[in-house]
Each structure stands twice: as C-alpha cells, then as structure tokens.
Amino acid sequence: MKNKRSFTTELSAHQILEIDACTQCGECLKHCPVQDVTGNPAVSPPEKIRMFREFIRATDGLKARLFGPAEVDQKLLQDFTKAVYECTTCGACGQNCPVGIFTQRLWPMLRKEMVKRGLGPIGAQAETPAAIKNSGNPYNKPAGERYKPWFPEQVKVADRSDIAYYAGCTGAYEAQPMVKGDVLVLNAIGEPFTMLPPEEEVCCGFPLFITGQHDLLKDLVTRLVKGYKAKGVRKLVCSCPCCVNIMTRDWPAIYGEALPFKIRHITQHVSEAIKNGKLQLRNKLSESVIYHDPCYLSRGVGVIEEPREVLRSIPGITVLEFERHGLNSRCCGSGGAARKVYHENAIAMGRQTIDEAVAKKADRLILACPACYAKVNEAMQGHKNQIRITDIMELVSGLI
C-alpha cells in the first residue's frame, strides 16, 4: 500500500529546512548521551535525520510529485520509530550542531508523526493518555493524594494570590523531598502564594507532548490556565524543568492567546528573593557541591545562572562544575520519556553523572529536576560509587 500521508504534515517550514540542512558531519555524536551508553549508530541523530529525509523524498520529492508517492518499507518505519523514541530529547546534539538544527524541538514532532501513523509511542508510553484522563497524572496515582504525603502542615496556602505554585506530577508522586523543599522556601520568603486544589492541578501536558500524543493537550492547558486566572495569579512558579518548558514555549499556542501570568522557574524566583533581601540564608554549609543542569532548564529555557546564584548565596559553600555544564550539560538519562522503555540506558547515563561527581570530590550532587532526582537516585542503587543527592530547594529549605 502506498503512503498517501505526507511526512511533513507535523513539521513547520523551518523544521523541513532543518532536516534538509543536516550534513551528516557527525559532530553531534560527541555529545549524544544515547551514543555514550549504546554506541549504536542506528539510533544516532544524523541517522534519524537521514532516514526521515528519505521518507520525505518518497512522499514529497520530485519523483513522488510526478509519479505519485512511493511505498515506504514498514521495517524502516519501525526501526526509525525505535530510534526516535530511544532518544532522551536532551538537545545536546542540536546545541552542538554546526548548522543549528534545534533538535530538542524537532524530535518530538517526528514522534508525533509516528503516532499519527500508528507506530508510536513505544511500550508504557502508550498508557500515558489513559492514565492522565483517569487520574490527572501520568502515574495514574489518586488525584486527591497529590499533596497529602509531603505538604508541610505549617505552610499556609492563600485562596487567591499574585503568586501560584505548581508542584507537577513527577515532583508530587516521585520526588517528594523536592516539592516539599519548594513550598518551605516559598513560605520562608513570606509572600502569600496559592495553589490549585489537588484534583485540579492536573498534568501540564509535557509527557503527552514529548511522546507525540497531543489529543488531550488543549483540555489540560485550558483547565490549568483558567484555574490560575480565577485565582488572580500573575506569576506561576514551578520547579520541574519539563513543566516550565512546555508552559513557556507551548502553553500560549495551545491555549490560543497570551497567558495571563508569567512563568518562572523556582530558582529564578528564589534568586530574586535573595537579592531583594526577602530570603536570607544564615546557616553555613562547609561542603563542596556540584550542580547538574537539567536539559530542559538550561538548553530548554536558558535558566543557567540563577541556580548557581542561589547556591553561591549559601555561606561556606564551594560550588563545583561538571566538565560539561550549562548549555553543554550531559543528560542524566531520564528525559524524553525514554526512561519508561529504555531503563538500562537511563541507569547507565545516571551513573555517568554520579561517577563524575565523585571524581570531582563533591560532597553532594545537587539536582533541580524531579525526573533527574528520581532516576539518578535509582541509578545509585547497587552502584560502586556513592554520593549524597539533594535537590536545590531541599538543600535551601534546610538552611533557612
């Protein structure tokens, strides 16, 4: 059966140009975390682009326009689907691409095309829409229990406020020390903040976006934006980089108009509070810490200096750096929903982060992403190298 559907349907004109612009130079292979742990060229960034370019030629090239679209081998489509879903979508390849291909945005669109063709997503990723529809979160955990296990009793949440806090699904269910630290620090700043009721703080949509399953996005985003708007929110604070990324980059387009509030990562909010004297860190920490930049925070939305400003404000602390940091940080392995299917890859990548932190003689590894927090802690289990892992706000909350 010949392919009547174009492979460019889900792509912008710019992304079509990007696919054509790839020179297959291989520079990205030096930075790809999947290549680091698998060494498999079949799942490399240039090979994925080469394959997809061939699909486009078969359906949209000159020959296809003259004689009709050619049949694309089903095995090739299946191989491509595996390759594009094994990627962590960390964006390191695009960051170092000589022709500037923005791969962190390209890969999800190629996944969306595979979903439209009934080939994606893979394994447990396919369960995400039903889980979110049923419970409001991709883990299918009880909506009413979203805050209860970790929310500090002494922290009061305002009914209405200019500032709102969004905990996010992974933080609330998989990285509870992280979100507990967030609200303790927000409380210490002293400005009132509000939150949606646990049943109303549904998924931000990122797990669906990143796996190419977009059908529920409009409903989720509209529900959240209207909920915060009704509470008079002017600034929405969140600690999950993936949530912040989709809120900043995609919520306005999905919602259909400009958001009625600003999006801020919690380190941006806290850094400002420290500078303005609203938060003082008086307790000393005589330790060397090493900070890991989350892919969707550094390369995704450019939040790099604020976490370091927060850490350097702690008396007595020494802040170390990974060899690859900031825009060139190494993926910890938990991104792009790949960890749900390619567990061994994720563990191997997480252990690379642990090993370098230990080699740098850090006392602690500081993280700022709930997915990183959950998976790197898992990677530590049974590993030869051990280091204390602490979320950045978990650390700050213990020093105020």
What does this structure look like?
With 400 residues, this protein is α/β, with parallel strands linked by helices. It folds into three domains: 13-120, Alpha-helical ferredoxin (Fumarate Reductase Iron-sulfur Protein, Chain B, domain 2), CATH 1.10.1060; 124-272, no CATH class; 281-397, Rossmann fold, CATH 3.40.50. The chain has helices at residues 13-21, 33-38, 45-60, 62-67, 74-86, 92-95, 103-116, 128-135, 169-174, 176-189, 206-210, 217-230, 241-249, 251-255, 266-275, 295-301, 305-312, 343-359, 370-380, 392-397, and strands at 163-166, 235-238, 262-265, 288-291, 318-320, 364-367, 388-391. 48% of the residues are buried. The mean pLDDT is 95.
Helix content: 40-55%
The overall average pLDDT, rounded, is 95
Beta-strand content estimate: 5-15%
User: Gap between N and C termini, in Å?
Assistant: 66 Å
Low-confidence stretches: none
What sort of overall outline do the alpha carbons produce when their principal axes are compared? Answer: globular
Instruction: Trace the largest sheet across and list its strands.
Output: 5-4-6-7
Question: Which quaternary structure do these chains form?
Answer: single chain
Per DSSP E runs of 2 or more residues, the count of β-strands stands at 7
